[in-house]
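task queued by scheduler; priority normal; single chain, no ligands, no partner chains; default sampling; output format set to structure tokens
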Amino acid sequence: MSINENPLRAEKRKKLHALREKGINPYPYVFENKAKISEVVAEHAATLQAGEKKPEFAYRIAGRLMTLRMMGKASFFNLQDQTGTVQVYVKTEELSEQDREAFSLVDLGDIVGIEGFVFKSQKGEFSIYAKSFQILTKSIEPLPEKFHGVQDIEIKYRHRHLDLISDADSRKVFETRSKIIKEIRRFLDDRGFMEVETPTLQPVYGGAAATPFTTHHKALDMKLYMRISPELYLKRLIVGGFEKVYEISKNFRNEGIDRTHNPEFALLEFYEAYTDYNYQMKQFEELISQLALKITGSMKVTYQGKEIDFTPPWRRLTVHDGVREYAGIDPDKATEEELFQAIRKHGGDIDKPGKKGEMVMELFELTAEQHLWQPTFVMDHPVEISPLTKIHRRDSRLVERFEPFAACMEIGNAYSELNDPEDQLARLKEQEANRANDEEAHPMDEDFLLAIDAGMPPTGGVGIGIERIVMIMTDRPSIRDIIFFPTMRITK
């Protein structure tokens, strides 16, 4: 983006040069003993009476100047730091000569420091009576219009700093995101899990059906892939004897961008030895319901005007039962041609029948997912689409897998992990054979197979999409609202 020196920028730059000509450093190195605005307000706002001054309670406060009202020798401005906003009163004749000169050259958006005492105005507004004033950072770029903030979505996502400066609600969303991740860590740490790290650059990608991003390592002269999932490395750690592990990692999938997808996203995966998908279903709903309670104060959350009740137990719905209920066809009795015709009827774009399990899943996605507003575990998927999952103990056509849904979005994925080395080899060979026709088919990973050969205990594994949980907990409609810097097309 080219930076245009518009009249507002030119005026601000003129003031910057004027400060330097007066011997005032517009970019000093430090502002010591700074108090937080929220703490000052919390301590004094309720006890002061209108018109009351408390010179004995003096503070040094710094932040961004957001509004400015000059009225002769007296002025008011709003000062904003990360914790809140406070009104500041300045009587210029009481400032030192250098402070007066600095104040005369201040602009909206400048970062300033003041020292002063608490008082309430005659109208009852809590304020700081400034006795000194200093410009800490002279800004050049004008701020967005005060009352409406950043309205242009393109600017909002591309220049997030402007959005955060002008929109307290947006800042709150990202503070909540941080709290959600802390609570997830606390939940798992309290249950004896160990947080670990696995490679972002991998010689063989795996753990999901997705197209990877690729890069090249010069020194090793080899092709590498950006991680699409940490799954195969975390399972190696289970093999190695760590019985409870988790990772919150950035993952990268070379796929489309829409309301719920961004090519770079945060994923929680945890693996627990000697458990299965039934155990992990209960643990999953405990994690999310407790998260809702901690973050929102209730297990009932309002998202886009509709309530979601995360109170356990959640609904359990098998893939086959979902097809029966929402597509009106029995997948146990239907022929491949009948499933194909049902898919076409409901808007699917396949041009010929495929494998039966794949068509059953396609039909579920077309007809059932749109109805899954309340938390629901979609269970027991066809074996054809789950190459890393144990065969269902009661039906060899299926695997022991669940996908939790809420607000009609998939928010996770979990398995009874496949630990039979011969079955795993056969499934990956089948995936490898499909790669000519399916770019998202799982590649062969011989190092992973060697780890499984060494013996992995029965294990339950879970993946959770952090962004979709944050979307629901903060009532945001788009994934781009809760990623600081979503992927954007380069503009010239």
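post-processing summary
- The first strand starts at residue 34 and ends at 35.
- The mean pLDDT is 94.
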